[in-house]
Amino acid sequence: MAKVKKGVRATSTQKENRISEAVYETAKDLYAAGAISQTTMREFDRLCLPKVPRYSSRQIKAIRDRCNASQQVFAAYMNISPSSLQKWETGARKPDNVALKLLSLVDRKGLQALI
């Protein structure tokens, strides 16, 4: 999580992230102490996963451009056909949930994350 600089006012999202992080850390401590069950801890794990963003066709193309990859190379990394990527970039089709997760990973960490 991003730290808030001293003297800079935190946004509501930053506050929510800090609260969520504190609740999750408390749950981990309670689980370690045996105060909550593994099932409850798994529920905390599930609830604390970051939301996967939806990407527009422009955003998908921008991610690929940032990676300096052709459509063929980017599609190979994503394990999809070049025509599917082309359709995403033109807005003719939208990526499914698994592809959105991969796009999110590449957006945050680059193509190397898929190797």
Written description of the protein model:
The chain has 115 residues and is mostly helical. It contains 6 helices and no strands. It has helices spanning 12-32, 38-47, 57-66, 71-78, 82-90, 97-109. The protein is elongated and about 50 Å long. The model is unreliable at 1-5 (pLDDT under 50).
List keywords for this structure.
mainly alpha; 434 Repressor (Amino-terminal Domain); 2 domains; disordered N terminus
CATH architecture of the largest domain: Orthogonal Bundle
Supply the helix-strand structural class: mainly alpha
What fraction strand?
Answer: under 5%
Morphology call: elongated
Number of structurally distinct domains: 2
Q: Which CATH top level class of the largest domain fits? A: Mainly Alpha
CATH topology of the largest domain: 434 Repressor (Amino-terminal Domain)
CATH superfamily of the largest domain: lambda repressor-like DNA-binding domains
Mean pLDDT: 89
The tally of helices reads 6
- The rounded distance between the terminal residues' Cα atoms is 25 Å
* Pattern of helices and strands: HHHHHH
User: Total number of β-strand segments?
Assistant: 0
Largest sheet: none
Report the radius of gyration as a whole number of Å: 19 Å
- Indicate the low-confidence ranges by residue numbers: 1-5
Approximate helicity band: 55-70%
Compact description:
By secondary structure, the protein is mainly alpha-helical. Helices cover 62% and strands 0% of the residues.
